[in-house]
Amino acid sequence: MNKHGKTRRLKWPLIVALVAGGAGLGWYLNRPSGNPLQYETTVVTRGELTQLVTASGQLTPLVKVEVGSQISGIEKKADETNCRTSRRCRTTGT
Q1: pLDDT (tens digit, 9 = 90+) per residue, 41-65?
Q2: Element (H or E) spanning 8, and its range?
Q3: CA triplet 2, 9, 3: central angle to 5 degrees?
Q4: Which of 25, 38, 53, 89 could form a disulfide with 83 if both were Cys (CB 3.0 to 4.6 A apart)?
Q5: 91 beta partners
Q6: What is the C-alpha separation between 66 and 31, in angstroms, rounded?
C-alpha cells in the first residue's frame, strides 16, 4: 500500500473524531448547572447618594473662569448699625 492511500484512510476518521470531540467539549462547557439561578430583589427607594474621592497631589481645574461685575452710577452704602425693621435704614453716599 502506498503513502497516499494510508493518509486518506486516516484523514476522514481523524476529522470526524476532532469534530465530535469539539462538540462534546462545547456541550460540557455550556451544560446547564444543577442549581437554578436565584435573584435578589428589593423595593426601590429614594435616598442620598454620596461619593467619596481621595486623591493625593495638586488639583487643577480644567477651565479657569474669572467672575466679576461692573456697576455704573452712584453707589450708596447702607448704615445698618442699630437699624430696626420698622424704620428705614440711613444711607450714606460713598
Answers
A1: 999 999 888 888 887 888 788 999 8
A2: helix 3-29
A3: 20
A4: 89
A5: 78
A6: 64
